[in-house]
Amino acid sequence: MSAQPFRLAGGGLIDRSQTRSFRFDGRRYEGxxxxxxxxxxxxxxxxxxxxxxxxxxxxxILSAGPEEPNxxxxxxxxxxxxxxxxxxxxxxxxxxxAASQNRWPSLAxxxxxxxxxxxxxxxxxxxxxTFMWPARFWEKLYEPLxxxxxxxxxxxxxxxxxxxxxxFAFCDLLVIGAGPAGLSAALAAGRAGARVILCDExxxxxxxxxxxxxxxxxxxxxxxIADALAELGSLPDVRIMPRxxxxxxxxHGVYGAVERVxxxxxxxxxxxxxxxxxxxxxxxxxxxxGAIERPIVFAxxxxxxxxxxxxxxxxxxxxxxxxGREAVIFTTGDDGWxxxxxxxxxxxxxxxxxxPRPDRDPALTALATRLxxxxxxxxxAGATGGRALEGLTVRAASGREEALSCDLLAVSNGWNPxxxxxSHQNTRPAWDDAIHAFVPxxxxxxxxxxxxxxxxxxxxxxxxxGARLGGEAAAACGFAPKPTPQPPRTDPExxxxxxVWRVRGGKRAFFPRKAFVDFQxxxxxxxxxxxxxxxxxxxxxxxRYTTLGMATDQGKTSNLAGLAIMAEQTGKxxxxxxxxxxxxxxxxxxxxxxxxxxxxxxxxxTRLSPTHRWSQDQGAVFVESGLWMRAQYYPKPGESDxxxxxxxxxxxxxxxxxxxxxxxxxKIDIQGADAAEFLERVYVNGWKALPVGKARYGLxxxxxxxxxxxxxxxxxxxxxxxxxxTTANAARVMQHLEFCRQVxxxxxxxxMVSVSEHWAQAAIAGPKARAVLQGVVDPRHDISNEAxxxxxxxxxxxxxxxxxRLFRISFSGELAYELxxxxxxxxxxxxxxxxxxxxxxxxxxxxxxxxxxxxxxxxVAGNELNGxxxxxxxxxxxxxxxxxxxxxxxMAKREALVAADRPVLVxxxxxxxxERLRAGAHFVGPGRSATLENDEGFMTSVAYxxxxxxxxxxxxxxxxxxxxxxxVRAVDPLRDGDVEVEICPACFLDPEGARLHG
Amino acid sequence: xxxxxxPLGAWAGILADGHVGTAGAPGVIAxxxxxxxxxTLIAAEGGEAALAAALAKRPGLDLPSSPAVAxxxxxxxxxxxxxxxxxxxxxRAGFPETLAALSCLxxxxxxxxxxxxxxxxxxxxxxxxxxxxMLDLHPSAFPVGMAALTAIAHIGVHLWRGDDGxxxxxxxxxxxxxxxxxxxxxxxxxxxxxxxxxxxxxxTAGRG
Lengths: 998, 208
Fold this sequence. Notes:
By secondary structure, chain A is an alpha+beta fold. Chain A contains 22 helices and 50 strands. Chain B is built from four helices and twelve strands.
């Protein structure tokens, strides 16, 4: 069919009944189910697919797998656009849209390809050499220019509309790669009863075997694959995961994998993620990832139409696509000759087979004769053609050069084991002279390597290795492997090979032909020579100086040739020159897959108070406070800014009554015969004398003597206390107490558990608080001032028998209570209090008003409990008992912590009462400059006091209490603030505490 | 006295009877268990034997000494750490009395309103939980009666495997009340591809 001019009439693992139409650079094409984007483009005769990174050279498709350095496209459009997507691994789907990258205005005509003319200036390290002067130009001019010109695809720049997931899996054996070795390993372990996970990055399982015309036990390999998959599918504890790339090996048998659940579809179906990242816990793993074929470095080796020989077979045999009609094979081993055979069988003309080895297997010559192909003992010196290959210069061993015309050059230079995962635990691969490649050495614990990935490059070895290692893994997990049947028989294959790393001297005839080592980064052999001359010889320097092996392909096709050229320059062997240690990920992984469900609102969990719905109904504005959402203030219609609202809320409490959710405070239930003794040891103040039914304010130090947390603790019974903590420190205090109990004083009879979640708690504050409560607390409980005085703490019932706890404690300085009910009743409690308070004008207030009132009272909170303050610093030195030992006592006596001139908490008000104070401002004496030497402390908290009608502040000032009445400046250079303030006592309102007892 | 306040369970406003995700036969079944009685029991040093004896008598529970759960009638006892258990009652009638009876043998702290519990089952429940649970829930690794404390979606979870039901394996998941909404956000998204039938257990009378 002319619509796909390079599609073969038959054959291949594609479904010709399933047409898939797609667009590339806006043009519509057709392919079939089973195609990759690359195979479908080739079927349509599209060979130019992108422009290179630096020189904007036309590039085609080099490979048929994840190693692809050239054929990178922008896949999809709009918010789903994915840059740098390898066309060779992109499964074709109906409606696929892709665009070439790094070209302007079009792929065929790219203005920046003039970079090639400037190539002498664009050598390795040119950024550093060219853009040196003047230095200040770097950030503003040079870097943005370079970034615009270089780089490949464009990020979508919009929020990804799709969902991603993370998941955990467990198995006895993880098999990485479902080629002949992987399938054999999975079969051996699965038959023994082991839990097996078999992952393959491809959408079709079978590995390289899918690309080849091979026989196993005298049957087509495809039948063997089908049988193996059918058997694996019948085993209940074997899980087969196609489209799943194992990208990293981590400690203790943990493997990272990404499953492309919906990448083969236009958009994910409803409720399906686009991708799922897996954390696989495997007792054993077999790496059966195969091998990656190596290109040869010669002039013009990046011309579209130059392709790896194995990739040519993949397009022929798997996809039914003829990558070219007139082909030359340039091979340094027997393997490339197979490509000639398969190409000829598909109808291509074999213009020549170029093989530099003089002592070839005679069978190869016989094959060439059968194919009618000319054999040249020599090399390909250069390729010509701009946007498509037009011809080659072939140089015979004699040195004689001749021009050959062709549209396809299949290059074969041996195979590198895909050993990346084996080196993820920082082990260097070892050089194997027999196959001229690095092979895994000392792979991570629990991981063994089979077949081609281990450098054992024949099908027969792959089958044997897989079966053996799969069986061994099962045995190591306690399963009895079935006796190994006779290894399957395979048809003969030649593996003899003698690599040529680069061909010199092809450039003179072909201006400006370059010989590329790293296609993706446009690194040439000349760049490596330059690096050698300039002393960047160790591999890590070579990489950073030339960018060899960087970017999305991480040098899968380039690293070894780069090393080989450096070795040649320095007169060393390749292993002496160095080896690359690969790090995760093996191929790029989308950040979305790593984040999974946890983005936007689900980035971290949110904690909601049991009264949250009530607050919402009241129109609350919420503020994040740790994980909690707390009601910050409750604006009423007509209130234009938050300060208006907060002022109203504060005055409502001071003059009437207010209601505030305090459920988020930490609550720790402490029981046991030694509970009081335990509190004695963790708090600075005394607890043994606290009567049952009473609450007390407590202060807790860290071991180093600084204040850790504060709160009220109530004695519910002789051996039963309820401790409250600040919201922010709830978990930290719980951990601290558990540490004390378990490690420091295991012999104390004290048991504790957090009950924060069980209780909803509300503060009812203001002169009318009691009147409101009397409408909610069941009448049999006397809560009169006499019966329920300040700091009373008792069980009551509310709402007709709901068990509750009532505490007469105050943060605002007013007559105040905290009422706690089981959380199921939290919503009803707030509504009942609002109803009971209606005649008294009850007003909900939030954390802002709470903060204003505690500053008016000089109570410390998070701003002051900053981990750097002692009890004395906070003006709480009187609380510290001298009669007992407690955590932090000794360290709090350190010289610097008791120095007389330490900053201590005092209050501040602006001398000019209309001025605003700012937290964070530093105190400096009048007339002194605002320098570090003159710094006397800083403002920790500020608020506008609607009662006093001016701003007030709390702060830590050197020798503060002795300086009441003095003036200092509060300097805030960040906001150009410099306010004269008067030092005053920290408590601004009702210092006698008369209101508390009202 | 008659109570006039309307309680709201931990799942109120978060989920309701219905179906989440892919239509058709649900692969996952979620039952929100509001109205349970839940309490922490912590034995005193050396007091475990007496507590065990008392629980064996009433309600007839064997005190688990490893991460496991024991059942008797409407009561379950879930290991919650060394020397620590959660007593879970299917309803709250009589629960305060049960706790009062135990209070001389252990530190007893009522947690009934502080925990949100889901009973999860269905043919795809393990696939769903695998999207957040870092424990191996394969039958060979997590048998009936096993319990664990773990974290799912950054939320502390107490989970145990109940007796198999008509839909296969049954997992009970207990999370802090304040985090129930975030937990459900994760669970619903994870179960959606399999389809999830959701129901809420009636709040039973006789709450404590």
